Amino acid sequence: MNNILPLVRNEVMKIWKKKRFFVVLLLLLVMIPIFTYAQYKLATNIQEQMGTTDWKLSAQEQVQDYTNRINSPRMLEEWKTYYKIEVERLQYHIDNNVDPRSPNGVTFTRVFLENSIGLLLPLLVLVIVSDLVSSEFQQGTIKILVTRPVKRWKVLTSKFIALTFYVSLTVFSLVIMAYLISGAIFGYGGFDAPVFMGFQQVGSSIDTNGAYVVEQWQFLWMSMGLAWFSSMVVGCLALMVSILIRSTAAGMGVMVSTLIAGTILANMAASWESAKYFFMINLNTIVFLSGQKPPVPGMDLSFSLINLSLTGLAAIIVSYAVFTKQDIYN
Amino acid sequence: MGTNHILTVKHVKKNIKGKPIINDISFTVGEGEIFGFLGPNGSGKTTTIRMLVGLIQPSEGEISICGKSVRKQREEALKYVGSIVENPEMYPYLTGWENLEHFAAMLHNITSDRIAEVVNIVGMDKRIHDKVKTYSLGMRQRLGIAQALLGKPKLLILDEPTNGLDPQGIKDLRAFIRKLADEGLSIFVSSHLLSEIQMMCDRVAIIQKGETLAVGAVDELLSQTKNRILLTVSPLEKGKEALQQMDEVEILPLFTEDMESVVNGLEPIAVHMDVDRVPDVNKKLMEAGIAVYGIHTKDPTLEDMFLHLTEGEQIE
Questions:
Q1: Mind telling me how many Å the CA of B194 is from chain A's nearest CA?
Q2: Residue of B nearest to A146 (CA)
Q3: Pick from B79, B98, B147: which is nearest to A144 by CB?
Q4: What is the pTM of this model?
Q5: What ipTM score was computed for the predicted complex, to two decimals?
Q6: Extents of the domains making up chain A
Q7: Rounded average pLDDT over A85-111
Q8: By the 8 A CB rule, do A121 and A174 touch?
């Protein structure tokens, strides 16, 4: 391991000097304010529609109403859980004197991450990874890189570690920048706001039996883990494509169209069950945390994670097999 | 010239997609020797070089560097090699110095003193902290050599090193290569230019269609090559007839450049014979009533040898 460290430093340095990470930061710096403004517009619209009614009063009325329903003997058990959770949520807002409809930095970040995991984040990963190996071929530097007295698998491993480093940095940057930029408008609070987990979509109804409340920072932290994992899988695939297709432009095209095909498919795959085996459909793992409808019925978190793991693993195996064995002609 | 073999290539063959590209190549490079690898474009020079540095695997045969097999002890063998395969390519977005640091990190115990030393050797001190994308081809070439020298190799492999250099650059490179060889480094230079190899190298391997045609010291190979004497006579046909009948005189096919020796619009006849026979042949031609306008003795060049070996197949 001691002699792989200088190689990793090389790879990290090259990506840095190529200014790829600056491109990522710049993209985030442009996009997040746009979404923040959109969110701000949405919030003010809602407030206008609701008028100036005291939110606290209506929330208290709702709590009262739900409590009555829970105590009613005719109420179905699963609905009771749902109302209990709602009461808990409203009570939090009343206790903390926070309008449940008003946005905050942490909520914005959480929602932004949730919406980025399927396409934006993978695209940012591609900015960094898509030419990781193909650029060495295009520049011809591969001929020096693999004729040094270092095993080829070590060269690839150093690239893989650098990839992991930058993918992690990208996920962190997205979260931190989303929080900092949106917080400037909505305020930096909301870490302890309650978020509900454990919903399950069963047929057309929602199973709330396993539902529970976590604080928003915990939810955000879990979302980051899932986003990181999905991004890593995209990174592994991009690395593989970068090895197999020596043209960066062609490789990028393949990856981008695959990802976009995934989002299109996710919108229409509900009736085609086998579509769930495509990795692109599984990228958005955060939907399982928040209990939203999965793209294909019957998918759950463990299915998606296994699917992504296998995809990533296959990409890594192919990458190593090809990179360590191939004859280099260009 | 050392007797230690730095590079040994034994019956190497390579098939690419079922097609034999390299049929049978064998040669050795000794210590401190400049070895020329000569062949026309497409004869398999670069493919062979790629096998030497482990970029591609030979289908058959064995390559070893300082006794280490490139196939079995790849890292051990490559420790002794510095190379530029085809063009001197570096990371354009890094400075020359950063490029050298990058490749130094892939070797053991290369200090920044050593980097400064190789920069000094190739005379790049002034521009080394500029980005490589601002370099001229000649500077990239020098940076490439600096990179190749970083690990104090025993063998330096240069693929067509004079490509794209101006005449002064070529001259400087030649002197530089000689200096390195005098310090004990073995240098393997490929080229499709005969004159270049002839001026630069101690020994040479000539390859054609993936096979070694000849391997040996440049002087030795030249001494084996038939000299050529160009005779300009009139009438031409009668002269040819007379020459054919003479003993120990062989008429050779004409090369395009022989036409430069046209005298009075007369096409020359190329013959091979001992130089001592020239006065006698001249006398006999005169006696036969054939006018001799010119006799031009040409020293054998590698080109003659090459054409001789490849039976007239042209190279540049």
A1: 25
A2: B55
A3: B147
A4: 0.85
A5: 0.84
A6: 4-31+103-323
A7: 81
A8: yes
